Amino acid sequence: MNVSTAIIRAVNAHYLSSSQLSALKPIVVADFMRPLPIQAQAGSAMQNRITRQLLNWLEPALAETFAACATAGLWEDGAPHGLPVAEIYESYDVDSDAVGWIQLYRAEPNYQTLELLRPYFEGRFVIGFELSPFQKAAFDALGVPYVSIAIHPLRFLHDYKFMISSNFGNMQALQPFALPREQIGFAAQLRRAQFREAPLELRSEAAVLFGQVEIDTALIGARGLISLQDHITEVSNLCARFDTVYFKPHPYGAHSQEQALILSQFENVKFTTHNPYALLAAPQIETVAALTSSVLTEAPFFGKTPQALSNIWQDHSETAAYGIELLSAAFWKALLDSVETGKMSERILPTAAPMTDVTVKSLLNVSWETHGAQTIPESGVEVVLNKGIEIGVGHEGTKMLRGSGWKVPSRDHCWAGPQDAFLSFRLPPHAAPDLTAKIIVSGMATKDHPVLLQIHSEGQILGETVLETSGLVVLNIPLKPSSRSALGDVLLEFVCSHAHSPKFINGGSDQRALAFALRRVEIMSSKAALSFYIGETVQARDTRGNTRFMPYGWHDAEEEGVWTNGRRSRLRVTTDPLPDRDIELTLGNVRALLSEMVPVNVLVVSVDGVAYHTHKFRRGEPGEMGRSGVDIAVSLPREAFCKPDGIVNIDLDVVACHSPAMAGLSSDARELGLTIQHFRFDSAIRSVARKPSAHVANIIGPFNIHTGLSVMARNSFLALKSAMNDPAADRVQLPAGLLGPRAVNFNNSNHLDENSGFVQQDQDGSDINIFLGDVTRIAQIVRKDGNTILRNRYNICYGAWELETLPTYLANTRYVDEYWGLSNFIADAARKRMNIPVYAFPLPVDLHYPDTVTPRARFGIPEDAFAFLFTFSVDSTMARKNPEAALDAFQAAFPDRSAPVVMVFKSMVRQASAPNREAFKAFKARALKDPRVIMIEETLSRDENASLYMRCDAYISLHRAEGFGLTMAEAMGYGKPTIGTGYSGNLDFMNAENSCLVKYAKVKMDPGLYHGQQREWAEPDPDDAACHMRRIFEDLRFREQIARAGKRTIYQEFSTLAVGKKLLARLKDIREARA
């Protein structure tokens, strides 16, 4: 409904008069559907606090206007009068979390919702703060009159103003309460005049891009919460239009540094924390850009062109703005009068502003003009790590001096008095946490008249020294992460105990009170390598003397680039924190010195001794000196950064080098090989997004760690590859020239990448993405790299989950076109909550057979014992894997400890939580009391892991839930009789004919056991499992029968080739549908 119209809406299908409205009982609410940070403490939630505060402000006015007292509508689970919020979420089968709230924010209220809300709101008059479209639609359907109040986007005014929407009354009749448009324009004029007195030093013909707080209702789109990273193409277009784009983060935004890092890929983006209205008033700024920020509404009042990067922005520049008078009884009586008269009654309007100092800003105590969490002001100098900055006349470092304590700079230093001396600078966005500021000072002091010099930041003393002479003193000050803003701004305060005049110390006429002189500053990294950030381009001309980056094999850098010197040239790089994806290093505009003497040259690029790329230069082709250069992309695997020092050595080896003089080309006698203009470090994921679509699919996941997800990544790759190489006549036919799958490494876990034996060096990409894991991993990629990998592609999530219903946050389909579950169990769980195509494709089982099987003795297994095996990761939680039940079943099956039988537990503990570590410790202590139990906790090689399965006699898993159950499938594939709980994903390949299924009971989960879930899972029966164990041990014929049947099932239906054909057939269907 258009609430700005003068038409009076008749609620409950009949006309409500002013007196009827005033007879209703007012109820004050906020967006009561917004989730609680801690569900057990509903009363402390933000929305409840807003509701109580709004009621406190309005209560006197509402008491004069309505016959009944106003009450508050709160989300308080279990409270007698709490709103039924949890029940509403349940009626939609979504969780009451942030993802669920976003999902329902613009939804249509269902019948259950209306019936749940009816007893709470029937006969009520709703006064709401920022009601959601969902709530407004519910009140419309229930015939409940409401007024929703929201902060107006025009925030440059002296005080915040309000917007109003309602499903009754005549908004035009409230015009006398609204701020005249002429006054708004005049206020903007005064703001511009205010900032003209101290204009900003900005580049001309620029734009400014404003960030927003992350959980902003203005960012809720049709598919969820949008972000700056979703609009990288729009940002790129903005950067292409302007020479400079300033990025101003939201002061209360938690992801400012993340946004700064992703924007660093654009070389003309500069970061600023200036007052937003100083930026709007700056004549150099032509366009104001944002996703949906209120600043877009404000921009025209400052003569700027607004550019919304998102099409969901709503322009409120013409929307009426109401002042604090909205809290008065006169306003509410006039609102009710407008129902009867259609116009404002003859009331005297209150004029609160001249009568009180109270403002909405002071009541809310929120203003985005402050620095918010970023208390450090704007810096004018961005430092280069490991490069000294001189202080003095004409030196760049003098721009870093802030405060009145500094004196007029001298040629090579600047004196400071005892107070108000600050040093301000900005670190690169990628700067490591372990930086040191090397500060060189001298004192106006003697041994008898010393000066104590302290350096402070954010209230902490970072370092101090006692100056006793005029000689040079070096201070090494640690720059803690807490002393930097999100954009890397640092403010150091120099605090001195005394100041002396030169006349007093040395004689002469200078009577200024001086404490110390600042001479040089250098910000140093502890690592002897170039610390880069993803998206950074390093110009070769700027590398002169940088031996950290170029330790040997290089001539001095020139304006056009840098030449290699000799046959081997080394680059040394690092980055912090550890990247979660591979890095692509591009050697930019490379050209080789070729001549008749050396008509061909070959470059081999090695990373830590492993050759990764070879390029051949020939005369007459691009890449020859005098012709256009070539860009050479080199993959830097994440594994290379996982060493203790994190330093990666990149060797550039050329077959030959010679001098121009030797070749008769010039008098230059230097030995030259290649010249390189620049070095660019980028995410391999962003790089793949730019490449041609030559592969059948991009498989994106962790390929080089030892976890179940990594096995899934490698096996899925092998499955598609084997299906495409299948020589059988019934193979899936794909378009000619389409290459096999493209592996893209992404590991956002704490597991360090290792050499998994998986090598993938393809250079192109695909128009179909298969993301391994869950949808949250896709969101993490977008936050780091933007959405370029998703655009114009078909995006599939190939995922796992272990319970019968996906949590809402895992059912978020914002970035996904299709979902593949690892089992029918997972697919069924996904279908309940996903509104996209869902398929079940099993995890391919790739069985490894080592050339030499590791003997039992290596694992401590007696040669004459019958060995049961269970392998599990404590990271997957002890409760779900349930090794205690396997131990119970084993001890019940074999109470006689003299029987030749052992129970082998192979476990892994890497990222497990503290409670799981404690649970494992207790389990281990109990298990080892039985001498027949063998515990293996070390990480095994692939050969050893396969050998362990082959050396054992049977396998058991008494899990409470499994998404697929890979270890059981592998055991069956190796021909081992397998026992498993008869529940969840393993039922895709286990049945009564090929395995032993254990009886179970469905039980309610303890919410603290598994990711906060409170659903049902299986409680396997240890006695039934014990019977199966006893039978497998005693009945050779039965044992061999189910072992053969199990092996046949895995080979025929779950091998890499069998599953690969199914995956390939689906990809073919997708391609044909998209053609």
Helix-residue proportion: 25-40%
What's the total number of strands?
Answer: 47
Largest beta-sheet characterization = 6 strands, antiparallel
Number of domains: 6
Low-confidence stretches: 1-14, 38-44, 343-355, 371-375
What Rg do the Cα atoms give? 35 Å
Approximate shape: globular
Kindly, what is the distance between the CA atoms of the first and last residues, rounded to a whole number of angstroms?
Answer: 41 Å
- Structural class per helix/strand content? alpha/beta
Strand content: 15-25%
- Give the rounded overall mean pLDDT: 90
Helical run tally: 26
Overview of the structural elements:
Strands 24, 25, 27, 30, 32 and 33 form a six-stranded antiparallel β-sheet that branches. The chain has a six-stranded parallel β-sheet with strand order 35-34-36-37-38-39, sandwiched between helices. The protein is globular and about 105 Å long. Mean pLDDT is 90; it is low at 1-14, 38-44, 343-355 and 371-375. The longest helix has 20 residues, at 46-65. Helix 21 links the parallel strand 41 (901-908) and strand 42 (933-936). Helix 2 packs across helix 12, helix 5 (111-121) crosses helix 6 and helix 16 crosses helix 26 (1056-1074). The protein contains 26 helices and 47 strands. Helices cover 25% and strands 23% of the residues. It folds into six domains: 13-179 and 329-364, no CATH class; 181-308, Rossmann fold (3-Layer(aba) Sandwich), CATH 3.40.50; 387-525, Jelly Rolls, CATH 2.60.120; 531-683, Sandwich (Jelly Rolls); 698-749 and 764-840, Rossmann fold (3-Layer(aba) Sandwich); 856-1054, Glycogen Phosphorylase B (Rossmann fold, 3-Layer(aba) Sandwich). The chain is of the alpha/beta class and 1075 residues long. This is Glycosyl transferases group 1. Residues 874-994 form the Glycosyl transferase family domain. It comes from Lentibacter algarum. GO terms for molecular function: glycosyltransferase activity. It holds the Pfam family Glycos_transf_1.
